[in-house]
Here is the input.
Amino acid sequence: MRPGISITLKPAMRRRLAVLARDRNAAHKQVWRAEIVLLSAAGIGTNEIMRRTGKSKTCVWRWQERLMQEGYEGLLRDKTRPSRIPALGTNVAERVVALSQTDPPAEATQWTAVMMAKAVDISASSVHRIWREHGLQPHRVKQFKLSTDPRFVAKLRDIVGLYVDPPAHAVVLSVDEKSKIPALDRSQPGPPMKPGRAGTMTHDDKRHGTTTPFAALNVLDGTVIGRNMQRHRHQEFIRFLNTVEAQVPRRKTIHAIVDNYATHKHPKVQQWLARHPRWTFHFTPTSVSWLNAVEGFFAKLSRRRLKRGVFRSLTDLQAAINRFVAETNNDPKPFVWTAGPKKIIAAVRRGYQVLDSFHEDEGSCAQNKSQDGRRSG
Here is the structure.
């Protein structure tokens, strides 16, 4: 044995090592480490231990020393080694973060990892790591639109009030249409999904016309009144209103939530409302279509039935939409509104504050540039 190394095992330690050496579920490297220690404690020489375990002399010595220094636990883990690649300085990460929030120098709309790596002189994987650590995603952009309706707050409170506390002896309907849905048929049949492969479909399609489904979502019980139309003019909208009028009990008043599409405000529609006094229209604020509950139904229709659907004719498409409406009415879910008006109003105000501060910064930058230009001139 190596000079200065003396291994004497207590019975409990010997049993633990013997169990580890026979454990078929243990890591192989832990097994031969235990064997080295057991052979060393039995007084077997280094050369014989090397022959039995197939390890080098330095390896045998290393684990003999490790046991003496750290005990049984030292055999179960490897010591960490310093990385061969030097760590990036904090100034590098700060520069990547700062550049990511500016426009790229090339003719591109956003930074890519390769562009950033070339600009900062680091690897693309390092750029990805810095972006993850700081929550930056240059490839993504979220859409938004703030309403400029002067009666935004009043309309918001009116519609949310209908959702949260509907009037007694009344029906609250969310009404809208999804215009020009195409009946798409694929040019070739696609193989279905199977283990290890996703379903496929051709990138091109055959078009067989379009349809415009109108829908009225009953907020109280989740049922839907639907009808397919060829177009979405005021004539079709009035025909749909007549359909709803025939299906809602006479004793009920009707509060209809609609958006600001011109068809909904057409003079002929206003005349129809005058002839049907139990109807009341509640218009959403401009650019706030998400406030209309029926948009959720149309989103579900698109996601579950239309997006990957194959329709060989316009009739097939209309029949599929009608079946989807029927399935929805077989298991309806009442619409539940959860966001309070105060929370929405506060979010809109914060949005305007961010836009105002952004425009102020842009204006000050433009003014400084113009002043610099005049000085240079």
Summary: Residues 92-133 form one domain. The chain has four domains: 11-76, 92-133, 154-330, 344-377. The longest strand covers residues 205-218.
